[in-house]
Specification:
Length: 124
């Protein structure tokens, strides 16, 4: 059974940094498609960053240049380094997995496995 467990959220001031981690278990991690999403109460969940099975990355325009998605296959862990945080980055952040390898762009809606989320709060 696939399990995704996020950690690393917290409260920071604008301009600060956080690193989120997502520990994955229950399947062979190395060749699958991973992503980070975020959600603010009352709004739809939005894709923030993704990394495909070949290691290529994609970022939403709102975070490009500030966030970096990476993975450590040996540790079966996904990361999201968030720098120069802004109050508008405040949200619940979720790790997500697509258990089909692909080295091309896929729809955000195809990520079917989710963690429980970790809260990020950025104050001005």
């Amino acid at each position: 059974q696939v399990q995704l467990v996020e950690s690393g959220g917290g409260s920071v001031q604008a301009g600060g940094s956080l690193r989120l981690s997502c520990a994955i278990s229950g399947y062979t991690y190395s060749s699958y498609y991973m992503a980070w999403f975020r959600q603010v109460p009352g709004k739809e969940r939005e894709g923030v960053a993704r990394i495909d099975s070949c290691g290529s990355t994609y970022y939403a325009a709102s975070v490009k240049g500030r966030f970096t998605i990476s993975q450590d296959n040996a540790k079966s862990t996904l990361y999201l380094q968030m720098n120069n945080l802004k109050p508008e980055d405040t949200a619940m952040y979720y790790c997500a997995a697509r258990l089909t390898s692909a080295c091309y762009t896929v729809a955000w809606s195809t990520f079917a496995y989710w963690g429980q989320g970790t809260q990020v709060t950025v104050s001005s």
